[in-house]
């Protein structure tokens, strides 16, 4: 499935769109008991009765309405289930092989604590199947099993954001939303980080730089890259940049990076996105026999508890997880309350920590 839909083509069926519209109206309180009949809804939506029936069955599966033979369909009142259900959020993240890293992510831990203090039920779904090329079937299963939650999308590809946006579910992006979708989002200002990192390396005299990106860059990675190259275009000349996408497979990643470090015109500085990549590549640098920062300087775009304890201290950009968590929680609470949320991203600017892995640029030394 391509990341952008060509020519405005909408793959969603009439049933998908009807279910999304009805679900949204129910959650906002625009449809209440007594619910209109199928014939009336078909007329209001301008679609056939079979399509309306199929959409209503999905809402029943989601636990929003009850449909019984020979009876008028009705909402499932919270009173029938005892005390009103507390508001709930569900964080969705495609983990791959990094489930432990995400499960212990400082930002998620801070958000969990903040939501708990506000009486909001929390769930984190770490599911690698969401990152597949066609995740629609798995997404339908997850959503059907969790009605009436605010979804928080963390490190998901654009096609997943597109799926949630099309259905009109209560959702926000923890990260940078795709510009074409305009979902509520909270993120670090990665464009500013890219600009600053490029300027820092240039001022240190580096002329051969490697920009290390993941195999499947997200919107925040793209913003960081844009800021990085914008600085070079406006402020620097005679600088060679190797744009390097790390393969998903660890063995391939190590082999490819070893070739990069052994090249005659190897980089004297690495600007690495993603903490997991930073950890893996630092180990590879030391195994290659290169010295940090004498032979190669390293800047990590992100920080993490594991990176903050590294020796020598890593040059990195760090944001207080609590600051970003509070911004995200406030946005989610507005969505839960049905209040209007700005579609413009809410940015938090991280702090630059110079550390000990940044040194002046030198002429490239022969690889030993």
Give a concise summary.
The chain is 40% helix and 16% strand. It has 13 helices and 14 strands.
Characterise the protein shown here.
40% of the residues lie in helices and 16% in strands. It has helices at residues 14-27, 38-45, 49-61, 99-103, 106-117, 136-144, 158-167, 190-203, 219-235, 250-262, 275-287, 305-308, 321-336, and strands at 65-66, 74-75, 88-93, 121-126, 150-154, 171-174, 185-188, 208-213, 240-245, 269-272, 297-300, 315-318, 346-348, 351-353. It folds into 3 domains: 6-81, Arc Repressor Mutant, subunit A (Orthogonal Bundle); 88-187 and 323-350, Rossmann fold (3-Layer(aba) Sandwich), CATH 3.40.50.2300; 190-318, 3-Layer(aba) Sandwich (Rossmann fold), CATH 3.40.50.2300. It is an alpha/beta fold and 368 residues long. Mean pLDDT is 84; it is low at 1-11 and 79-84. Strand 11, helix 12 (305-308) and strand 12 form a beta-alpha-beta unit. Helix 1 (14-27) packs across helix 3, helix 2 (38-45) packs across helix 3 (49-61) and helix 5 (106-117) packs across helix 13 (321-336). It contains 13 helices and 14 strands.
What percentage of amino acids are in beta strands? Answer: 15-25%
Question: N-to-C SSE series?
Answer: HHHEEEHHEHEHEEHEHEHEHEHEHEE
Within the largest sheet, what's the order of strands? 4-3-5-6-7-13
Distance between the termini: 45 Å
Overall structural class, as computed from helix and strand content, comes to alpha/beta
CATH level-3 fold name of the largest domain: Rossmann fold
Radius of gyration computed on alpha carbons? 24 Å
Assembly annotation: single chain
For the record, the CATH architecture of the largest domain stands as 3-Layer(aba) Sandwich
Main sheet characteristics: 6 strands, parallel
Mean pLDDT: 84
Shape: elongated
